[in-house]
Amino acid sequence: MPAPREDAEDRAKTLGDAAGIIFKLMCDRATSEQWAEWLRAPLEHAAGTANQDLVEKLLKAGADGSAGWRGCDDKTLLHAAAEGGNEEVVTALVRAGAGEDMEAKVLGIVGGTPLHVAVATGKDAAARVLMLAGADVNAADRNGDTPLHLAIGKDHARLAKDLLLGGANPKARGFARDCPIHVAARVGRHDVVHALAHKGADLDALDDEGMTPISLAVEGDHVSTVKVLLAAGADAKRQTDLSKTALHVAVKCNKSGAIPALIEAGADIEARMSLGRSPLWYAAWKGSCAAMLVLLQLGADANSHDEIGWTCLHAASQKGHADAADLLLRWGADEMAVDNEGVTTPSALIGDPRHGSRVHGATDRAPEPTCQDGAGEGRGRVGWPTRPGGGGGGGGGEPRRARRR
């Protein structure tokens, strides 16, 4: 880290005219070893500011450009050059002997090699020179991340592809046991996902939190990335922690964009996570109405239940999600369905009135059957989508109405 401006001014003020005297004294009296070492500090800072002309002059004047220097923030000369990003400076220092520090690690934030520094700061040209000079493309920084992890995480897609061409391991585990493809899926870089898949990345690998790449892409609503993963062979049915599928992850975050693609690729719309909860049930529990609507439109069972017999409507009602309850009723949810203990949704609300006032409003408006088979006018509210194929003329028909037992 450069000295604060006030410190630099204080130094100059304190030395005054003596600065020139000191320089002349060093020129006249220093041994060659002292002189070479004395010039290493300015060499570091010239490299760190990509001042190629000054670097060349310092080296020509006898500055020691070999390995072993530790300067600001524990940087070697090569770390400084990587940070500066001038490929000619990197090349000059490698030729001067600094290349022996190619695998040295700093103690700073990155805690990695010069290649980590170049990649993290987006210095493409410097990174390529380091790779050509023999930098280990699979070295881990203090967090366990490789340069490939950093390139993807910092959104340096071109660098990531260069690293893959240079032999970076597409299956390397980094921080939180992330593979590079986890990072790419999380940030929605479908082009990098494609490159990783081409290099043999594990499309269904689990990270420390039990998440697959496709689940991370779904969580971020990166639909194009989800489609690339599916096209490359990712398993749409793969279960994560607590037996969640990508559909469960989508509804948890109320991200509906990828749901059709997942189902088209074979995801089970009625898949059960822990406690027997379907994606629609979980969406109702979370109050994720946008995701619920897409699931219902694609055929999800509005009356699916969990292991204790709670239906989607029980779930929405118990959590006080009146809009979710209303949507379920419009799509045929049975407000009088009982759980394993024989409790209906209205009965449960009487016993637990915390959310009753809002949800009772939805269940109280449920339609009464008007003929033997239960057909009848839907409740209809302007702006609510309806189930296709029903009656009612015009745009797409009415949703199935709830039946009373």
Automatic annotation (TrEMBL):
Superkingdom of the source species: Eukaryota
Listed PANTHER family: ANKYRIN REPEAT AND PROTEIN KINASE DOMAIN-CONTAINING PROTEIN (PTHR24198), ANKYRIN REPEAT-CONTAINING PROTEIN-RELATED (PTHR24198:SF165)
Keywords from the UniProt entry: ANK repeat, Repeat
Organism: Ectocarpus siliculosus
Name of protein: Uncharacterized protein
Keyword Repeat tagged: yes
Biased composition (Gly residues): 388-397
ANK repeat intervals: 73-105, 110-142, 143-175, 176-208, 209-241, 242-274, 275-307, 308-340
Keyword Hydrolase attached: no
Family annotation (Pfam families): Ank_2 (PF12796)
SMART domains associated with the record: ANK
Record region (Disordered): 344-405
